[in-house]
Every structure is written in structure tokens, then in C-alpha cells.
Amino acid sequence: MSHKGLKAHLRALTVMVSQTFRLPETGVQILETLITCRMALSVKELVRRVKRSERSVRGALDHLVAKGVLIRKVSITGRKRLAYLYTLGPMDRVIKVLRGEILNQLERLERLEGTIGKQGAANP
Questions:
Q1: What residue ranges define each of the domains in the chain, with the CATH number in brackets?
Q2: How far is residue 9 from each of residues 2, 4, 20, measured CA to CA in Å?
């Protein structure tokens, strides 16, 4: 697959993840940044690259880690401080998480359809 084709597929995946999990713009920018740079980044580096507040970036990172889309690795800085580095999870894992969320949404929709159908039939 060409670089251009891969980039289009990764962009499509970013859009799917952001729509499925209803990510705020900061989360979308973080995903795009981590996909394009292909390396682990710290909170400080992400803040600089996405040009958002540290609070907004940390919130989006926590959400993406909790969903299983990103991986957080512990790192020790040159000054012996604890830091976290973030990377995109393996593609098979990201797709599995995305598939699971879409199936959960479909199940909720089917339950809602059943409930509305029963109430609609009872109230002609």
C-alpha cells in the first residue's frame, strides 16, 4: 500500500474513532498528531503540537487511554521525574475497541427500538 493510501486509511480510522467516541476537538487533534508522528509523545509535547491547554490535553488523553485507543508508558526524565509518554495502541487493538463500541451502540439502539415498538403498539 502506498504512503498516500495508508494516510487516507489512518485518517478514516481517526474520523471513525472520533465520531464513535464523540471526541472533542482536542482528542481528534491528539489522535492525528500521534498517527502522523509515529512516536511516543509526552503531555508537554502534545500541548505544544495541538496548541491546546494542558488541562484539555490531559482530559482527552485520560479518555483515550480509558477507551483503549492510546497506550500510556511511564518514563523517567533527565531530572529523575516521572513522566508519561503516549502512543497509539496497536491497530488490531484499536479496531477491536472501536468494533466493541459500535456493537454496544447497536445493542442500545435495538433495545430502544424494542421499547418504542412495544409502547407504540400499546398506544394506537
A1: 3-122 (1.10.10.10)
A2: 11, 9, 16
